[in-house]
UniProtKB/TrEMBL annotation:
Protein name (database record): MFS4B-like protein
Signal peptide: 1-29
Keywords in alphabetical order: Membrane, Signal, Transmembrane, Transmembrane helix
UniProt cross-references to Pfam families, sorted A to Z: MFS_1
Transmembrane segments: 98-121, 142-164, 195-214, 221-240, 246-268, 280-303, 309-333
Signal as UniProt keyword: yes
Entry-linked Gene3D superfamilies: MFS general substrate transporter like domains
Organism: Mya arenaria (Soft-shell clam)
Length: 365
């Protein structure tokens, strides 16, 4: 039996919460889309480690967020309640001050926006621009894809991105709930488990900065997807056998092996499939958002109405689906590139015109 107390009245204004969530998602989605498209456009193949570094910063935020929220969560208190001649142990939750954590997040977001505002002011208001250009390379992607094949590849890539992001977001979002409902951990311990996941996720992305210098994106994708499936199998076995040390080992494992998949899909598409324009980046982000939108509804329903272990069943199936889509795309590319021509992308740089000076000619006497 659990009793919740101390909720603030304004926290129950669901329309306001949904509206604020929509606005934050709108801004974050636009920033994510533009950043990914600009990264591959400016740096090309040289941007492989920079792409990994940019996404590593997302994981760093994921480490800090649960630690910031944890002190404001309600404490779990066990109290003895006597009813006549019987005594019952009741779980009571104290006051939750989650709004304080959101105010801290607001301050961090505002400080993060200042550099972009400064760049915008210099470019648009002061007329000062920075010429950023990286040396272009000879791409192995096809010169011109048939319309049908291009549409098919776009659909498959979007489906791959959707299934992966569904796994990533659902695992991070429902891990604490799974630990509380199935593993019977308290909220604080579950919050630390979430931080451990994000810690492994961040370490994996920083490791990807080094690995991407020696391995191609397609190699990292293949290896990490296989390891991700094995990590979920290990977590599933450890959970059903209630082997707590093994659970603590396998909780960070999926985070580590999910770390490089998202940025590698972008770089693999740019280098081997088709140019990542703003439209392609938007398609990827819309697909990713669709997966993160629908999957929690499905997983939440299964965890509530069937069993909490459904959480791992769904993630394991979706990981297999993501890997299968990757294999299909890879096979299509191998078949087409054997017969199709390859494109070469060159950059033509026109230097600024030199200032003309007046030449004077002196006659020798």
């Amino acid at each position: 039996m659990a009793v919740f107390t101390g909720f603030q009245p304004w926290c129950r204004s669901y329309p306001l919460m949904l509206a604020l969530r929509f606005l934050s998602g709108l801004g974050g989605g636009g920033l994510d889309t533009g950043a990914n498209a600009d990264m591959v456009s400016i740096w090309d193949e040289e941007g492989r480690p920079y792409m990994q570094a940019m996404h590593a910063s997302f994981g760093a935020g994921g480490i800090v967020a649960p630690l910031v929220i944890e002190p404001f969560l309600s404490e779990k208190i066990l109290e003895n309640v006597t009813n006549g001649n019987t005594s019952e142990l009741v779980t009571v939750y104290g006051e939750t001050n989650i709004h304080s954590a959101f105010l801290i997040s607001l301050a961090v977001i505002l400080t993060g926006a200042l550099p972009f505002f400064y760049m915008y002011f210099r470019i648009c208001c002061c007329g000062i621009s920075h010429k950023m250009a990286a040396k272009k390379i000879d791409h192995k992607r096809p010169a011109k894809l048939p319309v049908g094949l291009k549409i098919a590849l776009c659909i498959l890539l979007c489906a791959c991105m959707m299934s992966y992001c569904a796994v990533e977001d659902t695992f991070a979002g429902f891990l604490a709930t799974f630990c509380v409902d199935y593993l019977q951990w308290d909220k604080s311990t579950s919050s630390y488990a979430t931080s451990l996941y994000w810690g492994a996720f961040t370490v994996g992305r920083f490791t990807g900065i080094i690995l991407i210098r020696f391995l191609r994106p397609v190699q990292l994708l293949c290896g990490y997807l296989i390891c991700l499936i094995l990590a979920f199998i290990g977590l599933f076995i450890a959970s059903i056998t209630m082997t707590e040390p093994a659970v603590w080992v396998f909780i960070p494992a999926p985070g580590f092996f999910m770390s490089v998949i998202f940025p590698c899909i972008f770089t693999w598409t740019e280098e081997s499939i088709l140019e990542v324009t703003g439209k392609i980046s938007s398609m990827f982000l819309i697909s990713a958002s669709t997966g993160t939108l629908l999957n929690p509804l499905f997983v939440g329903y299964l965890m509530k109405n069937i069993a909490p272990i459904s959480f791992l069943y769904v993630l394991l199936v979706e990981s297999f689906l993501c890997f299968s889509l990757f294999i299909v795309i890879y096979c299509l590319l191998k078949v087409y590139i054997k017969t199709g021509s390859r494109s070469q992308t060159f950059e033509i740089v026109i230097p600024p015109p030199e200032e003309m000076t007046t030449l004077s000619v002196q006659e020798n006497p």
